[in-house]
Amino acid sequence: MTSTRSDHTDYALETEAISKHFGAVRAVDELSLSIPRQGTTSIVGPNGSGKSTLVNLLSGVLPLDGGMVIIDGAGLRVVKAYETPDHGLTRTFQEVRLFDQITVWDNIMVVLTERRLFPALFERTRPSTRQKAQSILEQVGMWEKRDSLAQELSYGQRKLLEIGRALAMNVQTYLLDEPFAGLFPQMLERVKDIMKQMREDGRTIVFVSHNMDIVRELSDRIIVLDSGALLAAGDVEPVLNSEEVIEAYLGE
């Protein structure tokens, strides 16, 4: 169900009292927040605070038990994952999801081309589409691996390809769930560079991370969750240095 568009044009993503319960566990508990259209917002919190559940609700992977998600001004009480790109939002996963049996090149082309057979065949041969695929693979450092099967890639390379697939969606808002988890330093630096470029290009970036050094380096704004509720939100250093946030982490 979609409501009329809100007037909150400064925000790419908002929630109004959204909830998700797993039995007696309130994973997300009537959570309301706003994410500005410009810049990078990080979501942090102790283990079990509801970070990944929140991303799954925002992207339609999990159904809402209550409340509303507002994406680019469109209020949604039912978020359908396959419709979120139409609202200008896409995501990556903590556990990378690719088409393992096809090449790196084809993983990008699948996103760039029409889903119907004959338009897709036409799109694949169009020079502009092929140039776009090459540009994305070069941006994420995977051009040299374009002919490799996705299943042959290292963990870090798979992360980079998934980010490339998200970039190919060409939307406004990107949800990145633990994009730095398990990466070696060289890959980690590349992902940071990609996110910085996305920000310069005017994209809205929302990422989940446990690495506070990266959070401080990349974030314009931070959201802290605790037990499924909003603990704090705002500029990074004042929030991380606040007494309630320090207590939440020390009590983990």
Q: Describe it for me?
A:
It is a single chain. This protein has about 250 residues and is an alpha/beta fold. The chain has helices at about 50-60, 105-110, 115-125, 125-140, 155-170, 185-200, 210-220, 235-240, 245-250, and strands at about 1-5, 10-20, 25-35, 40-45, 65-70, 75, 90, 175, 205-210, 220-225, 230-235. It folds into 2 domains: about 1-90 and about 170-250, Rossmann fold; about 100-170, no CATH class. The chain has 9 helices and 11 strands. A hairpin with a 2-residue loop joins strand 10 (about 220-225) and strand 11 (about 230-235). Helix 2 (about 105-110) crosses helix 4, helix 2 (about 105-110) runs parallel beside helix 5 (about 155-170) and helix 4 (about 125-140) crosses helix 5 (about 155-170). The radius of gyration is 18 Å and the shape is globular. About 40% of the residues are buried. Mean pLDDT is about 90; it is low at about 1-5.
What's the helix and strand layout?
Blueprint: E1 2-5, E2 11-22, E3 25-36, E4 39-44, H1 51-58, E5 66-71, E6 74-76, E7 89-92, H2 104-112, H3 117-125, H4 127-139, H5 155-168, E8 173-177, H6 185-200, E9 204-208, H7 212-218, E10 221-226, E11 229-234, H8 236-240, H9 243-250
Parallel strand pairs: 4-9, 4-10, 7-8, 8-9
Antiparallel strand pairs: 1-6, 2-3, 2-5, 5-6, 10-11
Helix pairs in contact: 2-4, 2-5, 4-5
What characteristics describe this protein?
alpha/beta, 252 residues, globular, disordered N terminus, single chain, Rossmann fold, 5-stranded antiparallel beta sheet
